Amino acid sequence: MEQFQEKARQAWTWTRAQAVRVAGVAWTKAVALYRRGHAHLMTLPPVRRALVLGLWSFLAVLALVILYMLLLIPLTPSIHDLRQARAAAPSTMVSADGEELARFDQGLQERVTLKQISPNVISALISTEDHRFYDHHGIDFTRTAGAVLHTAGGNPQGGSTITQQLARNMFPEEIGRSRNLNRKLKELITALKIEATYSKTEILEAYLNTVPFLYNTYGIEMAARTYFDKPASRLDILESATLVGMLKGTNYYNPVGNPERSLQRRNVVLGQMRKHDVIDEARYRQLIKRPLRLHFERQSERAQSDSHFTAYVRKWLIDWADENDYNLERDGLIVHTTLDQDLQQAAERAVERQANALQAIADVEWSRAGVPSSTSTGMYAGMQGGSVPFDYFWKSHPALLDAFVRESGDYRKLTAAGATPDDALAQLKGDRAFMAALRKSKTRLEAGFAAMDPATGAVRAWVGSRDFAREQFDHVSQAARQPGSTFKPIVYGAALEKGLSPEHVYRDAVMDIKASDGTIWRPTDMSGTTGRDMTMRDGLVYSKNTITAQVMQDVGLPPIIKLARALGIRDSKLEKVPSLALGTSPVTLLEMVNAYASIAAQGEARLPFVVTHITDREGKVIARFGEDKPQRAMKAESAATLTDMMRGVIDRGTGTAIRSRFGIRSDVAGKSGTTQNNADGWFILMHPELVGGAWVGFNDARVTMRSNYWGQGGHNAVLVVGDFFKTALDTGKLSRDAIFPGGKPPPPLRHVEPVDEPADEPVEEPGDLLQEGAPAAPLAMPAEGEGGQESHGKAVPEAAPAPAPLPLPSD
Questions:
Q1: What percentage of the chain has pLDDT greater than the value 70?
Q2: 203 neighbors 169 (Cβ within 8 angstroms)
Q3: Nearest alpha carbon to residue 459 among 778, 61, 96
Q4: Within a 10 A sphere around the Cβ of 733, how many other Cβ atoms?
């Protein structure tokens, strides 16, 4: 080894000496050459000496420019890049059954062939932008030299050919738009490559399809539809001249915003067409007298077809494309998602139908002092027309209304402009339109629904709100709300993992529970306690807070939190306080559905995923997803026992509406959830082939369902879930005969009452969930942008406290 190192040192010493010697020789010769040249130069007459010196300087600069251009060649788009850009197509997002869901368009663009473009456009373009287009090879040296002379004289002019402009349009990031020599040289090199690769016809076609116009439109076809409400093939000479004239400055010569400038510029284009004999003098004189005659029709944004699901996938895909060097707007990728269109449509219809019904209930119940008493949604729908929605709510909550006004962006703007808080409040309360919009937004009931395949983790349906166009805030992945009793199966699952039997007995009684900080918590059930013994199984079936709290004591908080993380609640913070067992730590709906899916999969946890694979424009698969091995979250026997306990929730507990209202007789299990003051309603149902869950509530938790009956998740969120699963089973998307391991189909139901539930059904009310030190309930969706609190995708608590529930009239 030492001999090898010694030889390496000797070789390096010799190489360095040779390099120094060669460099010394080269430097000596260069100095000698410079001296001879300088001596010869000094022998020349002064005028000739100046000419020779100028020529040498020019040649030196030219040599440096050529050398720099050679260095830039590998830094400019390659021939492969040119072909990819010319064949650019937006990537497409499709459902699992191949139906298009969304496109990654670069604005509004529709490509057409040159034959589909009016000859008037081509004549106007070449006459104005590049009249020697068919004579040069990408660079018009005559025009470039003229532009340099004019610019040097203080009259800046552009000398770019159509091919150079196309280079900028095709590669805006690689070339840039800064006015400097580096950008110009990159543009020249790319233009030469384009001319060497494509015909003049192909260059014109590519240019006219990529040139940007205003209003998020690209290409001549969309421009023709936007400004003249016709296809590019039907543009007349005046319309063509108007659009070509905009290319000098789309905003400055915008015919909508600056019609006078646009008219003048259009006539300049006509003048260029006259100059190059496209039209004669008489025709020119006739045309310049005519008005613009726009038929402006702004094209609808294709993004309106987006949903919460596609918006979520878009965000994920942008990060993936950046990491893997793909351009979603140009590379024509096909993104195959997990969404099942039939199930998605069933979910959308369920959310629309049942959220409308629940909105009617909330509107009617809060419209008067007395609360109607009915388990029929139809009765409230009939009363809605004769009621003033939430009239009694606002009359009985004046302080809350003032708080809503003070939390608005308009209030912050007024106070920032110098208005006193009292004056700003009075001004806004006097604004009828503002107050009507505020009341309506605060009292609009919202809902979210998600469904995933427990066997794979594939998301099959996703509805983030009642209307994506109106409410982009996603109640599936963004809204973190208290899950209430839907968290309890995790507590009981941890107990089963510890070895406790579902028949383990507890006393149904209120007990003092001491938290780690010394505070005392006394969880209760609003329906009262019996003082009798109750099994752990029945504690879950009837959603008893008193029993669940005792189970939590026997198990301990760390195992409960560990199991929750393993099952799928990975991002939301879980507070280490006793009330966690009753669902006081906010989580997202997607996390809860994921946790239940892990239980349904016999304790095997899979991360939810939304894309199965991505193919390129030739159909070759370039990436696959959702193939990670599942992680064991809990023992299979524990998961099977917990599933059986949750069957009881459906058969005889707080989820009986699944059977009685919707007539679902399949082997299903689930759990409802309700939070303090009926702020949140939850219901999650497990079928062997699919797990689906819903959340129902108001964006601001200070607005709630009024009655305890309709405030329960087993009466509100269950409507969405039951509606969805009934459709999925009736249409054959889910098997009626599928059975969980160890289960058996329930006996046939002799009579189904589709509207009313039994009067003596078990009720689930949140009881006293409040605990000192426990996290506060999230009170609102993210604050408004003007100075609002940043949410980072989570619900943001508002400053004002939640109002005490109003006393309900006795029957």
A1: 79
A2: no
A3: 96
A4: 16
Question: What's the CA gap between 721 and 713, in Å, rounded?
Answer: 11
Q: How far apart are CA 426 and CA 483, in angstroms?
A: 38
Token output for 393:
């709510």
C-alpha pair distances (Å), 196 with each of 86, 182, 321, 342 = 14, 22, 30, 50
User: And the tokens for 543?
Assistant: 């959603």
How far apart CA 185 and CA 808 sit, in angstroms, is 79
Q: What is the pLDDT of residue 228?
A: 94
- Report residue 31's pLDDT band, with 50, 70 and 90 as the boundaries: low
Q: How confident is the model at residue 177 (pLDDT cuts 50, 70, 90)?
A: low
Give the phi and the psi of residue 25 in degrees, each rounded to 5.
Answer: -65, -45
Residues with Cβ within 8 Å of residue 225, at least 6 apart in sequence: 231, 297, 299
Q: What's the CA gap between 174 and 82, in Å, rounded?
A: 12
Compute and round to an integer the Cα radius of gyration of the chain.
36
pTM of this structure: 0.74
**561: its two tokens:** 């939190």
Length, in residues, of the chain: 811
Give the neighbor-by-neighbor strand order of the sheet with 459-463.
459-463, 445-452, 690-698, 680-687, 669-674
Q: Which residues of 523-549 are buried (b: 16+ CB within 10 A; e: fewer)?
A: bbbebebeeeebbbbbbbbbbbbbbbb
What's residue 90's pLDDT? 81
- Is the pLDDT at 399 greater than 90, yes or no? yes
Collect all residues with Cβ–Cβ distance below 8 Å to 229 and sequence separation of at least 6: 295, 296, 297
CA distance 319 to 331: 15
Please name the residues in contact with 587: beta carbons below 8 A apart, sequence gap of 6 or more: 480, 481, 483, 487, 569, 572, 574
Q: Per-residue DSSP letters for 518-581?
A: S-EE----TT----SEEEHHHHHHTT-HHHHHHHHHHH-HHHHHHHHHHHT--SS----SGGGG
In the three-class reduction of DSSP (H, G, I as helix; E, B as strand; rest coil), residue 513 is classed as strand
Tell the residue number behind the tokens 């400097």, with chain if given.
Answer: 180
What is the spatial distance between Cα 421 and Cα 1, in angstroms, rounded to a whole number? 83
Residue 180 pLDDT more than 60? no
Q: Which residue has the tokens 């890049």?
A: 81
Q: Which of 76-80, 259-263, 752-756 has the lowest mean pLDDT?
A: 752-756
Q: How confident is the model at residue 656 (pLDDT cuts 50, 70, 90)?
A: very high
pLDDT surpassing 90 at residue 806 = no
Q: Across the chain, what does the average pLDDT equal?
A: 84
CA-CA-CA-CA torsion sign (129, 133, 136, 137): positive
Q: Is 187 helix (H, G, I), strand (E, B) or coil?
A: helix
Q: Report the 10 Å Cβ neighbour count for 784.
A: 14
Rounded mean pLDDT, 70-89: 57
Contact 733, 342 (CB under 8 A): yes
CB 690 within 8 A of CB 734: yes
pLDDT (tens digit, 9 = 90+) per residue, 689-731?
A: 999 999 999 999 999 999 999 999 999 999 999 999 999 999 9
Tell me the residue type at 716: N
- Give CA 441 to chain center in angstroms: 22
Residue 252 CB-half CA count within 13 A: 6
Distance CA 489, CA 695 (A): 17
Determine the Cα–Cα distance for residues 598 and 584; give it in Å rounded to an integer. Answer: 21
Give me the numbers of helices (H) and strands (E) for the chain, helices first please: 29, 18
Average pLDDT over residues 114-124: 94
Least confidently predicted of 58-67, 91-100, 678-687, 688-697: 58-67
